[in-house]
Amino acid sequence: MDAASGPHGTRLARPAPKVLRYAVAMTADTIERLLRGLYSAVLYVLVPVTVYHLIWRGFRQGEYFERWSERYASYRDAPKAATIWVHAVSVGEVNAAAPLVNALLAMRPDLRLLVTTITPTGSARVRALWKDRVEHVYLPYDLSGAVKRFLHHFQPRLALILETELWPNLLFCCRDRGVPAYLVNARLSERSLHGYRVLRPLIGRALRTLRKVAAQSPADADRFRRLGGQPDRIEVLGNLKFDTPVDASARAFAAAFRDRAPRRPAWIAASTHEDEEAAVLALHARLRRRWPDLLLLWAPRHPERFRAVAQQAVQAGWRVATRRLTQAPDEDDAVFVIDTLGELMQFYGCADVAFVGGSLQPVGGHNLLEPAAMGTAIVTGPHLHNFSDIAGKLVAAGALRVCSDADAVGDALEALLGDADERASMVASGMELVRQGRGALARTLAMVSAELPARA
Fold it and tell me: Which residues cross the membrane (predicted)?
């Protein structure tokens, strides 16, 4: 024990630094076990709710009735060999992960890649992009037992988790099993940060298990620090969506589509949500009063809305075609519903102006870089908190118009459909911004390359 002199020469015992560090560590471990125990107990109590949720979603989208065993990490086959694991919750995250997964497949074809999602649409996108080149299962619920079974079965050597998937048991179990985990293309809106306030002590500890947080922007990095991440493990690497290549076939498709109706104007309502559908119908009616031959390309966000929007358009008095039935609209069709997955980017190139949904209601918006990369002028509503950094850059570049409500969206669409020069200016600015924004992929690969297993 070290000692120090107290009043009147009294010798006071002072704990050695090692003892202090041990006591603090013991306290931190105790707090972590307590928080994890409480969190896990609540989740196990809520297991019946997960079953109800799968049933409820299944009535809206039949795929939710399938593959329940994966949701609870019950597998019939034998444990796998070592795996590189990428988690992307749904379609948007899978698309963001695509450049990274493609690069890993090209760099290390000897490695097994597992891509997990949570939604069936994400699962379908994985299959469409990579078929059997990667393995796919649903990520199990964040029950400690299920997570441990998942990690034991797939034996990941590296975990690359996309964007904002902060599941405490998942991150703690990766640490306990010695799996290096990275949060890549990481984003955290102010709203999400506020939403984590109840779980912040637990989430903050889980964040500190990560090797690195590769943030999309300085603002995202700051919010991860405020949530509890270690400052020296948080880096700003940019947004992988900038590195999504525009397939030559997508440009060829768009060119062929336009050749079929070279003088017919078209706009696209992309990734719309149910509460935005009435606004889309009203906007199209308004615009067709000025352009009677105007075509609406309509891509609802969720597959269960495909049939509903087609029926609504028919009820509005328009002739409607769908991608599955007719492949392409003819000159008499007023609405063309894109009722397929994975084709949205090429259809952006078929429109003069794009309205990107999830922005007229507080969903937070959807990917704005795809229409920019395809050369389409962009209009949105005001709710863009999930894409605030990209939206700000597009607005500053003059490539995006953000509108306060549906009426203002209509004003912007009408102005842009009537002004080819302004559209061309927005298109040029958007494409240049995308070009300048590339580089996150190379930086991400450099960050994780040391963790890849040695070649056999």
Answer: 37-55
